Every structure is written in structure tokens, then in C-alpha cells.
Amino acid sequence: MDYLLSDEQKMIQELARKVAEEKIKPVAAKYDQSEEFPWDIMEILAKADLFAIFVPQEYGGTGGGILDLCIATEELSRACGGIAVCYAASALGTFPIILFGNEEQKKKYLPDLASGRKIASFGITEPEAGSDASAIKTTAKKEGDYYVLNGLKHFITNGGDAETYTVIVMTDKTKGPRGASAFIVEKGTPGFTFGKKEEKLGIRASSTRELIFTDCKIPKENLLSKEGMGFIVTMKTFNMSRPGVAAQALGIAQGALDVAVKYAKERQQFGKSISSFQGIQWMLADMATQIEAGRALVYSCAREIDAGSKDVGKDSAMAKMFASDVAMKVTTDAVQILGGYGYMKDYPAEKYMRDAKITQIYEGTNQIQRNIIALQLIKETAKQG
Amino acid sequence: MNIIVCIKQVPETTEVKINPETNTLIREGVKSIVNPFDAYAIEEGVRLKEKFGGKATVITMGPPQAEAVLREAISVGIDEGILLSDRAFAGSDTWATSYALSAAIKKIGAFDLIVCGKQASDGDTAQVGPGISAHLDVPQVTYVKKIEEVNPALSTMESGNTERKGGVKDKFMRVERMTEEGYEIIEVSLPALITVVKEINTPRLPSLKGMMRAKQAKIIHWKASDIEAESNCVGLTGSPTQVVRIFTPPPRVGGRIFKGETQEIVEKLAEVLRKGVL
Amino acid sequence: MPIQIIIEKCTGCSLCVKACPFDAIRIMDKKAVIDLNKCNLCGACLPSCKFKAILLEKPEVVTGAKPDLKAHKGVWVFAEQKKGKVQPVVYELLGKARELAASLRAEVAAVLLGEHLEEEIQELIWRGADKVYVVEKRELANFQDEPYTNILVELIKKYKPEIVLCGATSIGRSLISRVAVKLRVGLTADCTGLDIDPQRKILLQTRPAFGGNIMATIISPNYRPQMATVRHKVFPETVSDIKRRGKIIRENFDGPFLVSRSKLLDIIEEIESTVNLAEADIIVSGGRGMNGPENFKILEGLAKVLGAAVGASRAAVDSGWIPYSHQVGQTGRTVSPKIYIACGISGQIQHLVGMQSSKIIVAINKDPDAPIFKVATYGIVADLFQIIPALTKKFKESLKK
Fold it and tell me: If I label B230, which of A209, A255, B58, B152 is the partner at 20 to 30 A Cα–Cα?
């Protein structure tokens, strides 16, 4: 389908596809095995200016929008969802600063993030606070010109490898949800350490670690916006980044579909290629249509955000939920089409299935997404009726 | 350093197939790309410019659509692109092509180094690079696989001062030249021309900012008159060689196909080999 | 206009569109239209047109000074030497030169530059040279672009041969390209065919283009000498006839002719302990189907038993499974052994170009649709990992007997 991309968007797509095919595809299986952080790929992305896409021009970026980021993320995910998420999660960690940072903070952090010299990460989840983000327990106590952080974040993407972290912590427990604040913490700050690296089912090239704060002193200048804005920062950030997760899911699905179609053409059974069997053809048709529907939803949502629309919560929740559910279905079907070979690690299908699963879980589980959509829907109808 | 890179736009021959019925080339949908060896020349030109400062210019002789390869070169770091395009150039063989490129280079002005790819994937002659060095009367080293040292001590950027001062050497370059048995180490004085092989570097991917710069770049267009080319030295009239006939070679026909049990096949194969060699 | 479509005769059948290697013809309003920006005036479309609707006029006479063509006589072969030894390709060229010279009723001469060349001069005469032009100088012991170019240009200007042949080696190609430009003459590289046109007595030079998809015959009617390079193993070597006699003409060059703006500092050889790919009679070659570097040992095993060299396709080399020196194909070596055994090689055109002149091609590939089966003398659709070890075993046994 022709999405009428601008020349610049086509450029991004072409470049990201080139990087994906020439540089990421050959090493995807290796990183999936070793679980090492793909620094060499990050360097290539940086040199290609892909980290600059989501940063405004005055801070060293190319001033692109969410659709540009989605296009890049989708192309990279086609080759490897794990390596792509290292890139996308850096965007996630950068958005709070772009949206809520003051001039000093933007000048201090954005140029390095745009050039890819440094990588970002976003930390809210805790062992007792997943979907129930308001249950976070990590605290930040104001002491003179500093805040002192104590607590633990876990399951943080890019944790330990990123240099710039935006974390959401409680500054005033008495205020409930209004008592959380967002802070920028730099790697290497005394009292800021990392826990073990998690071993995961999929996106294994991505690092997932605990962030441990033990009397970690950070300057008060590192507070983003005002005290109490923590969950607003989170919500606005996720509204922007959800299409990116959706794009990652689409890329994984597309990659799996490509593998399935190629295999179906080559595999001969009963004297002909299995792509000539209607059963397989129908599966492929459904897979392709679902991906296209997901893409239309994601791109529309991204365009909406780029056009400045404020009320995007429901739409971005729909995009994320739909695209990730599609990814899970398509990748499972791809394994099915490859049959026995689909189950073997020597063949690329099983990795796509393993990588797809997380897209239904992180950045708001699909159950939470459904809550968001339903509540918004009811609110809207209530206004009318 | 003032570097000039000569490149060519060629059809992507990996995609060129023969129609089995008519025995002719299937040309639909065949992309045009930068000649693969020239990608290495462009990369080397950019690297030298990054190391020594100065300017890297890329030039190509071709139809108007050859602009695309100049822009690709700019997207990876070349400063400026020049397109030599004129109906008068049509039908040029390697003599006329190297003449035209040399005339254009003379118009560009002083240079330290000309970099060319080893050969073009459509013509495969590898003659244009050495042809340019002969027209311009500069020394050449072909099949360069590594540049060991460059001493552009008195760069052409400093207006024409080529006096030797004390112990300062003349401008020179030391390279490794690939041979059938291994390689040679050669020192050549600058300005010079080199043709490069794949072993010399890994071409970089373009960056977004580079692609945007390339899109907006103003490509210089020169016709035969702009480079003061003599009409009997370009195009068909200027070409000492002429193509008198083009034909598709009789296709090598496949022989017999063996299928079956391993041992059976091996027996037959052993028989074939024995007969073939002895 | 040098080329045009005769509109009345054109039926819009589009056969010319398909024949054009430069994609310069389109059908518009049911008539062929040639894009003069893309057209190279090569003439490939002419034979394809059944209606003789294409008119191509090629200039016969060049404007400007026309050299005195009749003054040029003789077929020369540049005798490339390395470390004082004349290269085998020279003996192949001498054979062809004798053939051409016979049609032209001319003599064959070899040109040799270097140092301490007595035996080589004699061998050149025994191999077919009627004359040998020799320039012996310490400075010329090793090839250097400028002195060799200067001297060869001078010799050609003085002795006026009508044809000069040279091996398409790395030295030959660099040298002869410069010489051709300096002399303002035509040069055709990598010829696979050389003949004399019986009417016009000019050299017909045939070579592949577009990766071997098409062949072109080229002439240089208006310039002398006509120059061509030929790859090793395209023509057969002549045998040495010690009864042959010939003339030796020694020339000397000094001063400006020997000036070189480049200096050879060192020669490093990377010695291969295995059989030289270019010289081998049997080559066992592996491609993408080898599935990894360790599996090349299987091929090496067979190669050892057969006394063969090991080759590879570009896919295997690019994957880092085997060094580039083993690569056969358009961007690798051209080989023409008696037997070429292609294992797990699909047979893309770029590879075929490098080995399709092998006498016997044996292809082993799991994929029955692999293009290599179209050119293989014997095609085996089977698992190479079964066949090769079994074949190796069979040969080992028969050798023992």
C-alpha cells in the first residue's frame, strides 16, 4: 500500500532498510544467542544519523516526527526486533526531555542523544509496580540543592548500557498519583548501580536490567518540569512512544511474513511448492492483510501526533494493541508455515515469534491498552449523550 | 588535499538475465547503480579528505540520469559533483572517455590525487583510469589495495608553491599494489592517479544528513564546449575503436543430469573424471 | 543523426527494445523511439530488427590527421617478464600472432624489456617470434609504468607494427592502456577471439561484455597499431621449436626515457601451498551450498586426491569461508581447466563468466533449478555432503590399486 510518504520519509525508509539488510540481518542470530549489547550496530545507526530523527533541529537533530521514527523502527525490526528496541527505547528515554525539559536540560542532554554518542533509557517499572504504575515505591527526598534517590527499578530496557536515564519516583507519598516526579539520572552517579541482566525469551540483544538507587544524590537541576508531574510526564511520553512499539511489532511481523512467503515458494511437498496450496495461500493472505491494517492504524496515529493533535491516548493505545496482537498471530503462523523447520533455531522463523511476544506486554500491557481505549470511549460518549 | 574521484553509472548486472526463448537480454526493471569498484574509490576519496582536509570532487561522464550516482557520492561525504553530459559524447570508447574526463579534470584545476575504481562492471576494460593518467601525463599505480602513507606536505591548496624547503620531501604517496602473487610496495610522487580494488576499504553507508545534503546539492553540468573538447576527440568520431557486431554467444548447453543413489552417482562421476583427465 | 528509426518500416514489435544493452529504446505510440542520451551507437539493435527499420551510420573516416596505415606492418607481442622469466601468456599470444601474421603475410616480433634476458630471447624465437626487440637495462629489471610506457611507445613509433598483442595481466593492462592513449590508438581488452577480416585485412577483436551476456566484435580501422589484450589460458601455448631462427634487435634508451615518478620499494609474495588456480587442470570449487568454512575441508580432501586446485564462488569468499585468491568469476579469476567441479554453486552469471570455458563442467547441487545445470556437462542433483566424501574415497581406493 502506498502511504504517500514524503521524500524525506522515503529517504529514512531507504536508509534504515539498507542498514537492516546489510548490517543487522547478518548478525541478528549471533546477538540473539550471545545476548550482548549490539554496540557496533548502535554506532552504525549513529553514523547514519538515525538517532537524530526524533530530536529537534536546534539540538542537533533532524527534527523529524513520530511517523519518521516509526518508519525507521519498522525497517530495523524487520531484521531484528531486539536490536531495533535498543534504538526505540533510546527514543523513549529521550522524549521526556524533549517534551518537558527546560532549555538547560535540552542543551545538556539532547545533542549527545541525537548524535548517538549517548543512549537513553526510561525507568518506571518496579517489582511491585507494573501495570499499577502508581504503586511505585522509589523515593526522592529533597536535601538542599540535591535530591536523594532510594529504591529499585526493574525490567528496564537499555538498563546498564544507556548513559542518560529518565526515572519516575515518589517525591511526596501523601499526594498519591500527584506525588510522583520525573528526574534525569546519569550513569556513573555515585549511588546509582545496576542489578543483574535478565535472560529473556526474546529481544535478547536488548539489555534488561535493574536500576538500583542507594542514597543516590542528584542535583535539583535534574528535575524534569515540576514536582508532582511524574505521571503526566509518563503518560505524555507513552502517548508518543506507543506508535514506536507498534512499529516494532509491525516490523517483526513483516519480517516473519517475508520469511514465510519465501519458504512457501521454495518448499516442495506432494510434487509442488506449498505456496500453491490454498490453505497456505489463505494463511498468507490473512497475515499480509492484518499487517497492512496495523500499519494503516499506526501511520494514521503517528501522523495525528505529528500534526499536533493533543488527544491521542485512545488512538495510540489502539495502534499498539492491534499491531502487537497482529505480530503475535503472524509470527506464530509463520512458524506453522515453516512446519518442523519453523521450530528449529537454524531457521529464522522461531526468533520472530519469540521477539513478538514482548510487544503485547511492555509499554502498557494490551489489557491496560484496552482499559485506556474503553475508558476514553465511554468518556466521549458520555459527553455526547 | 585536492582529490578527484572518477565514477560511472552502470546497470546492476546481477539482475541482467537472458530470455531463454529469444536469447536476448532481459532489461526490464534493471536498476542503475554506482559501479561497484567506484564505491571503494569514493570511500577512499572521502577518507583522505577527512584525514588531510581539503576537497573531494566526484565526476562522471554519462546521460542526465547519471546525476544519481553523483548524489550518492555526495551523501557519503564528497563535496561536489560534476556531470559531463552531451550528445557529442555518445558512442565514446575508452580513449574518448578518458580524453573527455581528462579535459574536465584540467578545467577543475590543480589536484593531488585522482582515484578510480579498478574497472567498470559493464565494460570490464579497466582502461579509462590509466587512459586518464596518460592524457594528463601523471604517474599511476593500478590495483591499489592499501594506502600506507601520504605526504601532501606542500598541498595544492597553497597556491602553487612547490619549492623544496630544507629536508621537506616532495609530495608523495606510498601504496600497496595487488599482484597475482601477492603485492608490491610502491612510492609515487603526487599528483598521481590510482585505481583501487575491493580490499582497500569498506564503503560506508550514507547518513540522513548526507542524503539530505545530496538531495539539495547543485550538480555542475558540463557539455563538450565547457571543457573545450575537440570534436574529433570525443564521441564516435573520437573513438579509435568501433563496435562492428554484437551477438549473444551460443549458450553453453547443459548435458546430462544424474539422479539417484549416492554410490551409483559416484561410480558414474568417477568414470567421467577418469576419461576427462587421462 | 547517426541512428534513426525508419518509421514506415517499424511495426512496434519491440524486439529492438529487448536487444538494447543500454535500455535506450522505448515503444511510444506503437513505434520504436531511441533515446539518444542513452544510445551508445553500438548497433546491437540492428540484427534484431526483422523489418530493417533501423539505420545506423558509422563514420568511416576520421577528421584530422590520418596516419599512413600502409606503413605499418607486423604483429607484435609484448613479452611480459617477471623476475627475468617470460610469462606463459606470452607463448599463447605468440601462437595467435603467427596465425594472424600468416593472414597478413607479415612477421611476428616480440618486445622484451628487462635485464639478463639471453635465454628468454632465444625461447621467444623458438616459440614463434621472427624478431625480438630487446631493451636490456638495470632500471628495467622490474616493471615500472613510466619507463616501460615511454620505451614501448618509442619502439612502436619507430618500427610501426600494425598489431600489438599483450597479456591481460595486472602489468599488461596497466601498461598497454597508457601506451594506447599516448599513441592515440584503439585498444580492446580481454579478447576471447582475434581474427583477420579477409577483405579489409584488419584485426577483428571479439570480447564479452555485460558479464559475458553478450559478445562484441570490435575493430580499429583508422588507427595503427591495433592493440588488444588477451587473458591467460584463452589461446593455446605454442610449442618450442629449437630449429627456428630469428633476428635480435637491441635498442638502447637513456635519460628521460628511464625517468620514473614511481619507485618500486618491495615485492611481497603470498605463497600458496596448494596448486595454482590459474594453472590447474582440475578445479574443485565450493559455493554458498558449502554452508561454512569448515566444510571446505571436504573439497580440499577431494582436491588433494585428484591433484586439483580449490576454487570458490563470490558468495563463499564474501562470507569469509575462503580467501579471495580462490575466487573464480567476474570479480575473481578466470579459469579454463579440463574439469571444473562446482559444489553447492548456484551458477549465477558472474560466476559462469569465470569458468564457462572449462572443457567439462560437473555441477553438484541440491536444487534442481539451479542455473548451473544449464551449462554443466554433467549435472548431479544430490547432496554434495554425500557425494564428495564418497567420490574422494573411490578415488583414494583406485589410486591404491
Answer: B58
**Domain at C282-400: CATH architecture:** 3-Layer(aba) Sandwich (3.40)
Measured in angstroms, the CA of A59 and the nearest CA of chain B are apart by 14
> Comparing A145-154, A314-323, B259-268, which segment has the lowest mean pLDDT?
B259-268
Q: How far is CA B248 from CA B63, B72, C122, C195, C288, in A?
A: 25, 33, 42, 18, 28
Interface test with A, best of B75, B204, B205, B209 (most A CBs within 10 A): B205
Min Cα separation C60/chain B (Å): 9
Residues of chain C contacting residue B272, judged by C-beta atoms under 8 Å apart:
360, 362, 378
Residues of chain B whose beta carbon is less than 8 angstroms from a beta carbon of chain A are 204-212, 215
Chain B residues near residue C2 by CB distance under 8 angstroms: 90-91, 236
Mean pLDDT of C209-225: 82
- Measured CA to CA, the distance from residue A51 to residue A80 in angstroms comes to 17
Residue A363 annotated among the catalytic residues of the structure: yes
Which residues in chain B have their CB less than 8 angstroms from residue C391's CB?
266, 269-270
What's the half-sphere exposure (Cβ side, CA atoms, 13 Å) at C154? 17
Q: Considering chain A, tell me which residue range(s) the CATH 1.20.140.10 domain(s) occupy.
A: 231-384
Output the CATH code of domain B2-246: 3.40.50.620
- Please give the Cα distance from C187 to C150 (Å, whole number): 17
pLDDT digits (tens, 9 = 90+) for B74-125: 999 999 999 999 988 888 889 999 999 999 999 999 999 999 998 887 777 8
The class (CATH top level) of A231-384 is mainly alpha
Q: What are phi and psi of A61, to 5 degrees?
A: -95, -175
Is the domain spanning A7-118 CATH 1.10.540.10? The answer is: yes
For the domain C72-258, what is the CATH superfamily, name and number? HUPs (3.40.50.620)
Contact B180 C350 (CB under 8 A): no
Whether the pLDDT of residue A148 is over 70: the answer is yes
Number of inter-chain CB pairs under 8 A, A vs B: 35
Chain A positions touching B211 (Cβ under 8 A) are 11, 15
Give one word for C131, left, alpha or beta, with left for phi > 0 and alpha for psi -120 to 50.
beta
Indicate the fold that domain A121-228 takes in CATH: Butyryl-CoA Dehydrogenase, subunit A; domain 2 (2.40.110)
CATH number of C3-56: 3.30.70.20
Instruction: Please identify which residue in the block is written with the cell numbers 515453516.
Output: A338
Q: Are A41 and A22 in contact (CB under 8 A)?
A: no
Of B141, B121, B122, B120, nearest in space to B130 by CA: B141
Q: Start-end ranges of CATH 1.10.540.10 in chain A?
A: 7-118
Express each pLDDT in C23-76 by its tens digit.
788 888 888 998 876 777 777 788 788 888 888 876 554 444 456 788 899 999
Identical fold for domains C3-56 and C282-400, yes or no, is no
Quick check: C343 and C367 in contact, CB under 8 A?
Answer: no
Judge whether residue A101 has pLDDT over 80.
yes
* Rounded distance between C-alpha atoms, residue A35 and residue A203, angstroms: 9
Single out the residue of C325, C309, C119, C109 nearest to residue C225, CA to CA.
C109
Mind giving me the DSSP string for B120-134?
-TTT----HHHHHHH
Domain ranges in chain C?
3-56, 72-258, 282-400
pLDDT digits (tens, 9 = 90+) for B156-195: 433 334 443 333 347 889 999 988 778 999 999 999 999 9
Q: Are C164 and C227 in contact (CB under 8 A)?
A: yes
Which is more confidently placed, A192 or B244? A192
Q: Which of A47, A54, A71 to mutate to test the interface with B (most CBs of B within 10 A)?
A: A47
Q: Which residue has the higher pLDDT, A84 or C83?
A: A84
Mean pLDDT of chain A: 95
- Choose the closest CB to B209 out of A7, A18, A62: A62
